[in-house]
Amino acid sequence: MRRHSAQLAHDNAVLPWLGANFWSRTGGPLMWRDYDPGIVREELRVLREHGLTMTRSFFYWPDFHPEPHRVDETLCERFDDFLDAHRELGMGTVPTFIVGHMSGENWDPAWRGGRDLYEDVWMVGRQAWFVSRMTRRFKDHPAVTGWLITNEMPGYGRIYQVDPPSSDVVTAWAQAMCNAVRAAGGTQPVSLGDGAWGIEVTGRDNGFSLRDTAEYVDFVGPHVYRSDTDLARQHQRAAFECELAAVTGQPVVLEEFGLSTDTVSAENAGTYYRQTLHNSLLGGATGWIAWNNTDYDALWDRSPYDHHPFEMHFGITDGTGAPKAPLRELASFAQVLKDVDFARCARSDADAALVVPAFLERGYPYSRPADRPLIFTSLHQGYVAARAADLPVALTREADGLPGGASLYLLPSTRQFTTRTRRELERRAAAGATVYLSFCSGEHPGTRGPWFDDLDGLFGVELQLAYGVAEPIEDDVLEMRFTEDFGSVGAGEVLRFPVAGNEDSRAYLPVVPRSARVVAVDAHGRPALLVNETGEGRTVLATYPLEHMAARTARVNPEETHRLYAALADVAGARRPVTVDSPYVGADVLLHEDGRRFVWLVSQSPEEVTVRPVADGVLRELTTGAETADVTLAPWGVRVLELA
After folding, report:
1. Residues 387-403: pLDDT tens digits?
2. 363-376 burial, b for 16+ CB within 10 Å, e for fewer?
3. What are phi and psi of 276, to 5 degrees?
4. Which SS3 state, helix, strand or coil, does residue 556 take?
5. At residue 12, what are phi and psi to the nearest 5 degrees?
């Protein structure tokens, strides 16, 4: 299956986009009032010297649009100089139009008067007029490399989940804004700046649908700041959200990511940047814009920094302009992009599919929004386990009819899918695929158990559930003992999984095998893993919610689901192009259009680790070409090698 790798195709001089969201330290959001051309050039020069090619810039809306039918010409002249400063350094910028939300505060133009930004026709017209005027003013400047309509509009237009607008309303608004750019002659790539926080990625309906707005935008821009209880999941969170954001097939730019160095050590700040950059690249991102360029120590008495003081220190440089650990990681990443000629690379194909249930993004009648967090977290944990198994996976959407053909389908802790999907999975297994599902009862008491038809027939079992009652898991650790060889797991081996979940989800599925055979049992001798041969392929059922239990456990990775996924890959014949003998190190491959192959090794170990990758070729150092067999990675380290 093809893994998403779409790249932007405008202004090759600054592609791929690698940059920072930019407010000068002279004023933060109010920088245009206190604009200092010299300091701005100094700030940009530091970024350029560290390999950054672009910035994302902002028209602070109350200042640039002070009256309904007027823009501030003085500020526009300052923005012209800002663009010139970029051009002098060979950089580009992506201006953002409707900037009324930033860093924990919302600001309105004085004339808004409480009008709704989406549904008040006059107010929509004023926004479109402003977008058009600013586009017409700056579209021909060579430093403009793209456009963003807004900044995190779900947090400004209407506050997140309090009375969110409908998708129809938001899509009509997005159409009007993007059309204003095009009608004014803007030819550069355009997107919304909404953060990709809508239902296809997060499972939360805020009115912004990537599918519905795809007709009007040229790329998708996730903003990823959420935290986790497990470091491996945290390090791969942005990658996973980039994978989900690729639902429309458009380029994915990690438009905002970062951290305040008030919350972590300098070393851990660097680690987070390193992991996020490389893992999101392996997750299909083809552009990166850090939040943000500098610290704001001198602005401590201004909003939003007086009430959100940690927002002062999201910078990749400090308040004097000196580089911080995140900028040094960006510089190293920039060198890797150059060394592999990233703009002409793509991810290798995958033989394994991670199935995204339609219930994540579709509000079927009487389905519960409460199901969606379970779907998201189980998929996320399954994604992390696949990476630990060195198993490339492509996300395939049930809502799209499971496009693509895979030899292995993974449905981690999946409770719900449609009747059509049930039959399609059976057909694909009969045609030679391996279909794996781990049972999950769900996290609420309504309609406990599997919400799809004929589990018995699909997996060759007879389930023994009593109506409405979950079968509790009483052990604190699941011991899965294999009764026969199963791929790379030998008979007699025991895999151990932490048990977690609430009173509804901490449950197993009691079954009696019919056409299936039991390949692993739990500590009580009950079936834990069963294989049902059907046609040319097979279905595999885990009677425990392995991924859900891990997702609800802190500091759990690497846990042993990766062993099961590696065994499933062996049984299914799913290729793993490069493997290593440590679950702390994930391996993946990028392909250059000239035939070269590049191997990424990413460590999730807090200690130095040495591995010997197994691949169909010779590993060579990127810069020297020297052959290498054993590869040492620093704590949380990344190595990129050529596979000759």
Report:
1. 999 999 999 999 999 99
2. eeeebeeebbebbb
3. -65, -45
4. coil
5. -60, -20
The total of structural domains in the chain comes to: 3
Pair 420, 486 in one domain:
yes
pLDDT in tens, 181-215: 999 999 999 999 999 999 999 999 999 999 999 99
Residue 391 and residue 450 in contact, taking contact as beta carbons nearer than 8 Å: no
User: Exposure pattern of 139-161 as b/e (b: 16+ CB <10 Å)?
Assistant: bebebbbbbbbbbbbbbbbbeee
- What CATH code is carried by the domain that includes residue 600? 2.60.40.1180
Residue 608 domain-assigned (yes or no): yes
Q: What share of the chain is helix, strand, coil (3-state, %, to 5)?
A: 30, 25, 45
Q: Are 287 and 251 in contact (CB under 8 A)?
A: yes
Parent domain of 222: 12-347
Do residues 301 and 207 share a domain? yes
Tell which residue, 109, 3, 11, 1, has the closest CA to residue 59.
109
In this structure, are 322 and 389 located in the same domain?
no
What's the average model confidence in pLDDT over 540-552? Answer: 98
- The alpha carbon of residue 563 and the mean position of all alpha carbons in its chain are separated, in whole angstroms, by 24
Same domain? For 360 and 343 the reply is: no
238 found inside a domain: yes
Q: Are residues 556 and 426 in the same domain?
A: yes
CA-to-CA dists, residue 573 to 93, 382, 434, angstroms: 46, 19, 9
Helix axes 167-183, 121-138, angle to 10 degrees: 30
Question: Strands 352-356, 408-411: parallel, antiparallel or unpaired by DSSP?
Answer: parallel
Could you give phi then psi for residue 40, rounded to 5 degrees? -60, -45
User: Which strands make up the sheet holding 619-621, listed edge to edge?
Assistant: 345-347, 585-592, 597-603, 638-643, 619-621, 627-628
Count of C-beta atoms within a 10 Å radius of residue 301: 7
Sorted by sequence, the CB contacts under 8 Å of residue 582 that are 6+ apart come out as 605, 609, 611
Tell me the pLDDT tens digit for each residue of 416-428: 999 999 999 999 9
Examine the domain organization and report whether 316 and 189 are in the same domain: yes
Record the tokens describing residue 79, joined without a space: 């923005």
Identify the CA nearest to 591 among candidates 583, 599, 580.
599
- Boundary of a domain, candidates 313, 347, 381: 347
One-letter amino acid for residue 76 of the chain: C
Instruction: Give the residue from 178, 185, 216, 213 showing the smallest Cα distance to 199.
Output: 213
CA 327 to chain centre: 21
Q: Decide: residue 43, CB within 10 A, 0-12 exposed, 13-18 middle, 19+ buried.
A: buried
Q: Are residues 295 and 397 in the same domain?
A: no
Q: Answer whether residue 101 is part of any domain.
A: yes
CATH number where 363 lies:
3.40.50.880
Distance CA 444, CA 397 (A): 24
End-to-end Cα, the chain, rounded Å: 23
Reduced to 3 states, what is the DSSP secondary structure of residue 199?
Answer: helix
